[in-house]
Amino acid sequence: MIHEAPASTPRTRPATQRKRKEILDAAIDIFGNKGYANGTLADIADQVDITHAGVLHHFGSKQNLLLETLAYRDESDVADLDDQHIPDGPELFLHLVRTAVVNSRRAGIVQVYTVLSAESVTDDHPARPFFESRYSTLRGEVADAFRVLCHQEGITEPATINAASASILAVMDGLQLQWLLHPQDIDLAEASEFAIRAIVNAVLRPGPELSAYSRG
C-alpha cells in the first residue's frame, strides 16, 4: 500500500520527479535485459542522458535504485485500485487474472520482475529480502481469499489452501517466463485465467488424490 508522505516532508520538484521516473524506467530496461550484477549505473545513466554521479544523486546507491525499482513496479500494479492495495476475498482471484491481462501489454516490467526474482535466490543478493517478503505476503493474501471463498461455499475442511496459494503464484510466474521466451505461442492472459480457475475449482471441488494412483 502506498502511504502519503508526512506533512513536514518537503515536496519534490516536478522536474526532479520526472527525472527519477526516467531513471526508474531505464533501470527496468537495464536490469531486465542484463540483470542486477551486469546492469551498471553507467548503462542506466547513458539511457537518460545524465552521468553516473547524477544517478547516485537521485538514489544514493545501486542497491537503493534496485529496491526503488521493485517498489515502483509494485506501485504500478495497484495505481488504479482503491487505496492502492489489491482487493480482499474472492475478488482477489479476478484481480490476478486482470493483472495477467495488463502484464501481457508490458513485457519490460514482466521481464525485470522475472530476472530479479530468479537472481534473488543467489547468495547475498540485495533483492532477496524483498522477494521473500513479497511471496510470504502474497501467499497469505491468496490463502485468506481462499478461506473466504470456502466459507461462502460451505466448505469446512479446505486442507489444500496453502498448497493452492503457493501454486497460483508459481503458475503465474512460470507462465510469465514461458511468455517472455515464446510470446507467439503463449497467450499470457488466457493461460493465467485457465490455471487460476483450475486451481480454485480444485479447492472447491477436490477430486481423487493423484498419490493414490502412484502406489503399487
What is the overall pLDDT average? 87
Tell me the fraction of residues in β-strands, as a range. Answer: under 5%
Per DSSP, the total helix count is 9
When the domains are counted, the total is: 2
Q: What is the straight-line distance between the termini?
A: 51 Å
What kind of assembly state do the chains in view correspond to?
Answer: single chain
Order of helices and strands: HHHHHHHHH
- The helix-and-strand class reads mainly alpha
Unreliable segments of 5+ consecutive residues: 1-10, 212-216
Explain how this protein is built.
The radius of gyration is 20 Å and the shape is elongated. The chain contains 9 helices and no strands. The termini are far apart. It folds into 2 domains: 14-70, Homeodomain-like (Arc Repressor Mutant, subunit A); 86-205. By secondary structure, it is mainly α.
What topology emerges from the helices and strands here?
Layout: H1 14-38, H2 41-47, H3 52-59, H4 62-78, H5 91-103, H6 107-119, H7 128-152, H8 161-181, H9 188-204
Helix pairs in contact: 1-2, 1-4, 1-6, 2-3, 5-9, 6-8, 7-8, 8-9
